[in-house]
Predict the structure.
Amino acid sequence: MGTPRSTYAPTDPHALKFRRALRHFPSGVSVVTVVDGDGGVHGMTASSFASVSLDPPLCAVSVNKPGRMHQLLHGTDGHFGLSILGQDQGAIADFYARQPWSVAVDVEMDLHHGCPTVGGALAWFVCRKWAAYDGGDHTIFVGESLDYGSTPREDLQPLVWHKSAYHDLGDQLERPRVTKQG
């Protein structure tokens, strides 16, 4: 798999130092999908996906402000999809990391209530925009999950992003016990 290049490239030395430090935090890889006003499906790779709340069920994703996906999320009817990618979906992550404004003709999309999600993803969420918060050079979009699902296959593993490259989970580690002193 290739290494995707973000459409956001900081030049400030402090931003670069901060980004280098963040490389040490592994994260799952997701794709945000939205339908534009002409019915075109667009996607953006995001490693900034997070669960926010169980009641109501909320998810969040951070999106670069000058980017096309930012414009699309603000301009839609408020619905967007989130797909958690599996370890065999690196090519999809690469495509949407480089081409967030493009429609990939060879990426299978599933429709749930008219909202696209990546076919074969480990999990998917159909969200209604619940809130948008300023996050510096990004906007944090919080979505209420109206519908969601996951693969029944236990053998599939997530795609993991760490130190600017894709990884799999590897072996499960034993959890050593920490004992209280005294």
Remarks:
- DSSP finds three helices and twelve strands in the chain.
- Residues 25-167 form a domain with the Pnp Oxidase; Chain A fold (CATH 2.30.110.10).
